[in-house]
Write a structure and sequence with these properties.
146 residues, alpha/beta, Nucleotidyltransferase, domain 5, 5 strands, globular
Length: 146
């Protein structure tokens, strides 16, 4: 099984590391990323942050962009293959539609993604709203053999 590190760079995002048939994950936040030691052949899949993220304060937008750049730079600097995937790409792969297209509230949408991640990874007991996107990225990476 190909090793992947899949990262949702948001403030409440999480990550999933799949290697040697095992899955390790963080339920929220990316503070432990620098301490991870994936195998050299691991592909790092990071959710691509858009230039405009909607009606949020500039300070929050700056923090998201800073965090995203730090995460991308960390793994590229360590020599890993880094693949950036937009939310639209992995959501299309998941076949769940879109938040706007379905008229979902943010809570409904996140719960839908969590349910789909749990369906795809039934042996993982602690898929949460904070790490569900990272599991969805992992599913996308597996499907396309990134």
């Amino acid at each position: 099984m190909k090793p992947y590190l899949c990262i949702d760079p948001g403030a409440n995002g999480g990550w999933v590391l799949q290697q040697h048939g095992d899955v390790a994950f963080m339920q929220g936040g990316n503070d432990e990323l620098a301490d991870l030691c994936p195998t050299p052949d691991t592909t790092v899949v990071i959710e691509k942050v858009p230039a405009f993220v909607g009606p949020i304060p500039a300070s929050a937008s700056f923090k998201l962009g800073y965090s995203y750049g730090w995460i991308v730079g960390l793994w590229q600097g360590r020599g890993f293959k880094v693949v950036l995937v937009t939310p639209q790409e992995w959501q299309k792969t998941m076949g769940v539609g879109t938040k706007k297209g379905g008229g979902h509230t943010t809570t409904e949408w996140k719960n839908k993604l969590k349910s789909e991640a749990q369906r795809r990874f039934p042996l993982v007991e602690k898929i949460t709203l904070k790490n569900a996107d990272a599991f969805c990225l992992l599913s996308h990476a597996q499907q396309f053999n990134l």
